[in-house]
Amino acid sequence: MRVRSVFFAVMILVLVLAVWGLATDVKWFDTEKCAFCKQIAKYPGLAEHMHHEYHNISNGIVSITTVDEDYKEAYYKSQADIQKVAEDMTRGGEMPYMCGFCSKYGYFLMAGVKQEVVESDVGIILIMQSDDKEMVKELHDFADRAKVEMKKMFKDK
C-alpha cells in the first residue's frame, strides 16, 4: 500500500504542474537535478537494481517495475521520499526542477489519463489508459522513449 499512496500524492502534484507547464529543453532522466529522480539516486545501487518494462496496449501503456530483493527497503524509502517532495509542492512550496520523464508523467495525469496501480508479489504494475486516440499515441511515444532512455542510462553500468 505504500506505493499506492505515492501515486496518489503524484496525482495531487499534477495540479501544481498545470501552472508550471512542461519543460522542453531538459534531460529525459536527471538523477542529479530532478526533485523526484534524485530521491532514487540517493540510495546507492538502487537504480541499477530496479527493472522497468514498458508495453503499449490498445488504449495506453503498461509499466512494470520490479526491484531486487536486497534493495526493496531502499526502494520503499525512496518512494516515501518522493511522496514527501510531492506533498511539499502541494503545500505551496516552490516548483522544483523535474526531468522530461517526470514532467511528461505529470502532464498525463493532468490531462485526465486514467491510472491504475497494481501491487503484486513481483512488483508494481502501472496501467495508464485514455479514450482519446491522440493521447494514446502520446502514451505510446512516452513508453517507447522510456525504453530507449533506460537503455542509454544503464548501458555503461
Report on this structure.
It is a single chain. The chain has 157 residues and is α+β, with helices and mostly antiparallel strands. The chain is 48% helix and 18% strand. It is built from 5 helices and 4 strands; from the N terminus they run ααββααββα. The chain has a 4-stranded antiparallel beta sheet with strand order 1-2-4-3, with helices on one face. The chain is globular. The relative contact order is 0.21.
Terminal-residue CA separation? 31 Å
What does the radius of gyration come to?
15 Å
Largest sheet: 4 strands, antiparallel
Structural class: alpha+beta
Uncertain residue ranges: 8-23
Q: Give me the number of helical elements.
A: 5
Number of domains: 1
Which range does the strand content fall in?
15-25%
Name the overall outline: globular
| Spatial order of the strands forming the largest sheet | 1-2-4-3
Mean pLDDT: 84
Topology summary:
Layout (H helix, E strand, L loop, with lengths): L1 H19 L17 H4 L8 E8 L2 E8 L4 H19 L9 H11 L3 E6 L4 E6 L3 H22 L3
Antiparallel strand pairs: 1-2, 2-4, 3-4
Helix pairs in contact: 1-3, 1-4
List key phrases describing it.
single chain, four-stranded antiparallel sheet, 157 residues
Task: Give a quick rundown of the structure.
This protein has 157 residues and is of the alpha+beta class. It has helices spanning 2-20, 38-41, 72-90, 100-110, 133-154; strands at 50-57, 60-67, 114-119, 124-129.
